[in-house]
Amino acid sequence: MNKRSGHIDDKILLRFLLGETSGDEIQQVQEWLELSDENQKTLDNYETVWAEAGKLTPNPVAVDTPSVWKKMSDRIDQYEEEQKSTKTISLKSRFTLISTSIAAAIVVLFGVYQLLIKQPQQLMVASVEEVLHETLPDGSNITLNSNSNITYPEKFAKNERRVKLNGEAYFEVEHNPEQPFIIEAEDAFVKVLGTSFNVKAYENSEIEVIVTDGLVQLFTVDSETMDTTSILLKAGEKGRISNENRKPIYVAESIPDELFWMDYTLIFTDIDLKKVFGLLENYYNIKIEVSDERIYECRLSTIFSNNSIDDIIEVIVATFELEYTKENNTFTIKGDGCAEKNI
């Protein structure tokens, strides 16, 4: 830096805004700012243009360089028209020098940011008609339902693990308190440290999250006020973001077959056997009859995962001290109803 002229390398100022300057460079900036009020105004101008051009997210995206330059150039011209009294070199001239000195295809702030911080390659897994299984770079496992896709970086950032989901997927996330796992689904976000849960987020549909293990935060961010609305979901709970107000809410009803698509999982929580038998008939293409209508009043609480229909019937009759016979695809459940201790 030439103290007499008050000149400082623009690239140092950009690194200063990014918080990536060395100790010597920070001192250079501080000394440069002390030389005149105009220098402070110049730095403020950089910050103004930076903010107006578009705030960077934790995962920068590719930028249409010509359109960004035009937008930046127009805004700088407007700003300089309002600040005609400034005696420093125009911001437009400064940015032009930066863009030509770094690379012809990399210009202004976003270009410099992309140059200093290499963006990891984005990968996508998509399913059409079948369920797919994928292991992410951190060791987390996902099961992707049909007509769904997920996008994630080849290497996660140091401070977070962020993916984008369109459709439905079941996540088994590796625990890492230093690197939270975040799922973007349209305007909703799911944040966890390590747990198992299901996210349903098809385009233009309500977003639903079911937690099977651990703790999950479901939240939205208002694009205008930047206010965050969130709920915490623990194992066995369900949350939803409605299409009406896009706010997360708790969902009281339990739907036993919501995870059946993944691994034939059925979760029954105090469900009467009439509903249980109806689901089993639907999914296993069988018929279930009872010798006594009171059997339907028995209420079941258990989880079946990838079980055969014979195994499921065995568990049910053993739980309620019943019996059964089987002929072709028809099961007949026999008994006097639920034993009082099992109601």
On the 0 to 100 scale, the average pLDDT is 78
| Low-pLDDT residue spans | 51-69, 85-92, 94-108, 110-117
How would the global form be characterised? Answer: elongated
Order of helices and strands: HHHHHHEEEEEEEEEEEEEHEHEEHEE
Report, as a whole number of angstroms, the end-to-end distance: 83 Å
According to CATH, what is the class of the largest domain?
Mainly Beta
Q: Could you estimate the helical fraction of the residues in percent? A: 25-40%
Radius of gyration: 30 Å
Q: Would you tell me which CATH topology of the largest domain applies?
A: Jelly Rolls
Count of domains: 3
- Kindly name the structural category: alpha+beta
At CATH level 2, the architecture of the largest domain is: Sandwich
Please give the count of helices: 9
The count of DSSP E runs of length 2 or more, i.e. the number of strands, is: 18
Hey, roughly how much beta strand do the residues contain? 25-35%
Largest sheet: 13 strands, mixed
